[in-house]
Structure prediction request, 380 residues.
Amino acid sequence: MRRLLALVSVVIFVDTLLFGALIPLVPGFADRFDLTKWEAGLLFGAYGAGAFAGGIPGGLLGGRIGPKRTVVVGLVLLGLTSIGFALVATPLAMGVARFGQGLASAVTWAGALAWLTAAAPRRRRGQLLGTAFGFAVLGAILGPTFGALAKLTDIRLSFATVGVVTLLLAVVASFAADAQVAPMSPGRLIAGLTDRAFIAGLWLTTLPALFFGVLDVLAPLTLHDAGYGAAAIAAVFLAAGVVETGLNPVVGRISDRRGRLLPIRVALAAAMVVGALLAVASRPAYLAVLIVAAAISFGSFYTPGMALISDRAEATGLPQSLGFGFMNTTWAFGAAIGPSLGGALAQVAGDAAPYLVCSALCAATLLALHGRGAGTVAPA
Prediction:
């Protein structure tokens, strides 16, 4: 179990490292190619768009060929597209490469999380998913650091190196033992997609992706305008991610013992407040503190949301790989529209507008969960 957890954690870490690497590079690309906020959002959101396209196909692939082979396929594709990103030199080509990285990421996530949950005892599912997702957060926070170092050294060489490492990781994964997967049937698919708790879990991974998508585009641009360099921007996001990394296993353990809804409600209430404060933050120092607060509040949705998806997939007979494939699709939807629409709305109405929209969505979600018992999401 420990070896599998380590392998899954490393795979997810590499995925999110590449996702976050663009954060400190966005201002430089915007200056270099004369991009508007909307265009910068499109470039950043291309990764999420690719994950949206690959989510369900990745889940179906996992159900057909098994989690291990799905992970290997995703890693090979991720390595090749990362090398491709290093070789291109136009915004359009970079966007296409980022799209490919996102698609590959969705495939690896579907296989990796299904692999882990197939081997994990249900009473520890939230904790193990929280640990793996902690490494995802670690990758996301070291991604900006990696991006900053790439800018200081050589961007092309840095991304090409990660691509080669990813291909080597695919070789390592190919020697691990596979896990048994449940056969797919139309009845199980319908049962999963009509289960309200399963749909709620999908939304609870979409919402923070949207919120983080807005934050990851607007916050670096604001800090850059205030005189923060790529290294300083990366340091802010690194501090936020370190906190979130340590928090996720704790949140997962609480969801195992107290039910999935308790940490979700607390996180939603906190996210409402943080979103409103982001809308009125006027000083870079305040914004830096709120980025850390956002990592705590927004990031606390993911682990109980993923555990809820896994629980309901198991209850309805939906293959875990397909359940996480749907999760990748809905997460990617938030990750794609967050930066693109958030950037467009900020360009028209100011940065406060998208933050307030996200805060309102958290309030509406908390209201929808008000009074709902934990019967379908009780402790394991």
